[in-house]
Specification:
The protein has 475 residues and is mostly beta strands. It is 4% helix and 45% strand. The protein is built from 1 helix and 34 strands. Strands 3-4-5-6-7-8 form a 6-stranded mixed β-sheet, with no helix packed on it. Strands 9-10-11-12-13-14 form a 6-stranded mixed β-sheet, with no helix packed on it. Strand 22 and strand 23 form a beta hairpin. The protein starts with 18 loop residues before the first helix and ends with a strand.
Length: 475
């Protein structure tokens, strides 16, 4: 409490010290020995204040054990203030280590306010660096200003603005390391960027999209909309659209549509056309026979004008889509070619063979490649002509006959011969067989084949490289 001595005061030499003054002074001395300092009012304390112990402010209870400065106040919030009187000045809280004044005393870091002008301020966090020479150094590590934080950045523009890499660790509560993206309107996390498992990172849609993008961290394989990490370098399940250049050095498998709006090269890197293939290409069946369509956008419907591909399991052909008709067909088992409309006039097709062909069959069998399939648009009369040259029989002696016929649509015999061969010394004379017939046929697809059989021995066609010819003419 304040101590006011009796008058006169101050005492002059010869003034007796009154007992009350003495007693009051002794009481104040005793109080100060316990209370240390007790000042009230707005008066100041001149000179430095040194306290060699814990200091508790705002309470008469000792500071919390282990605490050197303990501020206690009923105000909310309780405030401790560092204030500079310098214009645009800064306030700093420094953290020091090692004994004061020692050769190893150093400052690990400090927190300091700053002013960027127009009453815009913030906080800067400094560390000293590394090494004895930098023990009092200052390197700014973090800056907070107007709600944004810059790590190693002095002009942050985002909530977190960092100069360098960041690390996101897996939490103890489970789930992969990553970042959730939260949208205000639904007030929910809508996407996640992070680890699918220990060996895969990806993008996940949290409102039903699932893992739309994944990358295997062990081999770099990428999967888009796959159920698990991709087995190939790139696996896409669904449609694909590429508006710019795309280079794939390995195999590419697309299970959905792929829209490539530029030139595409397969097997090389310099496409000059919409599709430029280096090497052979393969067309597989899928929802129909393998092949490819020719589409003309300027045409009237249908824009698909023609098709090159398989007609069936053993026939390759050209299809005209206006009207739909197979104009050319090739049997993939024997190379026989059928023309819907041929070279001149109205010859449908002609099959010519010159290599030798023989049989010992006593039942009807086809003669070499003498078979063709043709199509009629309306009811037409057709002329069938078959010439078989260089026919000779062997393996028997005496008179033996050989049967020849033209079989239409696998059921109707339209021409038949059974010439007699006089076989002497195991060989018969060489001759030519002709099978001809006119026939009216309904519109549609028809097949004609030349067949033969023997009663005994072997019959050979094509002796001395003689030709065999099968023709169909629409009249």
């Amino acid at each position: 409490m304040p101590f006011t001595p009796d008058q006169p005061f101050p005492k002059t030499p010869g003034n007796p010290i009154m007992s009350k003054d003495w007693n009051d002074a002794i009481v104040e001395v005793q109080r100060l020995d316990t209370a240390k300092v007790n000042r009230t009012g707005a008066d100041g304390m001149a000179g430095p204040l040194t306290i060699n112990n814990a200091l508790a402010v705002g309470t008469n209870v000792a500071a919390q054990a282990g605490t050197r400065l303990h501020v206690v106040d009923g105000a909310n919030p309780t405030i401790a203030r560092l204030q500079t009187t310098a214009t645009n000045g800064a306030a700093r809280l420094e953290l020091w280590s090692d004994p004061r004044g020692s050769g190893t005393e150093w400052r690990p870091g400090y927190i300091e306010s700053f002013d960027t002008g127009s009453y815009t301020g913030g906080l800067r966090f400094f560390t000293n660096g590394t090494g004895f020479g930098a023990r009092l150094g200052f390197q700014e590590q973090l800056r907070l200003v107007n709600g944004v934080a810059g790590f190693g950045v002095t002009d942050p523009a985002y909530r977190i603005d960092t100069n360098g890499q960041i690390r996101v660790r897996q939490g103890l509560g489970g789930g992969g390391a990553g970042i959730n993206l939260h949208q205000t309107a639904p007030n929910a996390n809508r996407a996640f960027i992070g680890m699918l498992n220990d060996n895969a990172v990806g993008l996940m849609g949290l409102n039903g999209g699932g893992w739309g993008f994944q990358m295997d961290t062990t081999n770099g394989n990428v999967g888009i909309k796959t159920a698990s990490t991709a087995a190939a370098a790139l696996t896409v399940q669904g449609d694909v659209q590429m508006n710019t250049n795309a280079i794939v050095s390995g195999a590419a498998t697309v299970s959905g549509q792929a829209n490539l709006l530029g030139n595409t090269a397969l097997g090389h890197s310099a496409p000059g056309f919409r599709l430029d293939v280096g090497g052979r290409a393969r067309f597989r069946d899928g929802g129909g026979m393998a092949g490819f369509w020719f589409y003309n956008q300027a045409s009237t419907s249908p824009q698909d004008r023609a098709f090159i591909g398989l007609m069936n399991e053993s026939t390759l052909g050209l299809w005209g889509n206006t009207p739909g008709i197979w104009g050319l067909q090739m049997d993939t088992t024997n190379g026989a070619v059928t023309l819907q409309r041929g070279w001149t006039g109205n010859v449908h097709t002609e099959v010519v063979e010159s290599f030798s062909h023989s049989t010992t069959s006593t039942n009807w069998v086809q003669i070499g490649n003498l078979s063709m399939t043709f199509n009629l648009l309306t009811l037409r009369t057709c002329w069938f002509n078959c010439n078989i040259g260089g026919v000779v029989q062997s393996g028997v002696t005496g008179n033996w006959s050989v049967g020849f016929r033209l079989l239409l649509d696998g059921a109707t015999v339209i021409a038949y011969q059974e010439p007699l061969f006089n076989v002497v010394a195991g060989n018969g004379q060489t001759r030519q067989v002709d099978l001809c017939r006119f026939r009216s046929l309904a519109a549609g697809t028809h097949t004609v084949a030349a067949q033969w059989f023997v009663h005994g021995g072997t019959v050979l066609a094509g002796d001395f490289s003689s030709e065999r010819v099968l023709q169909v003419v629409e009249l």
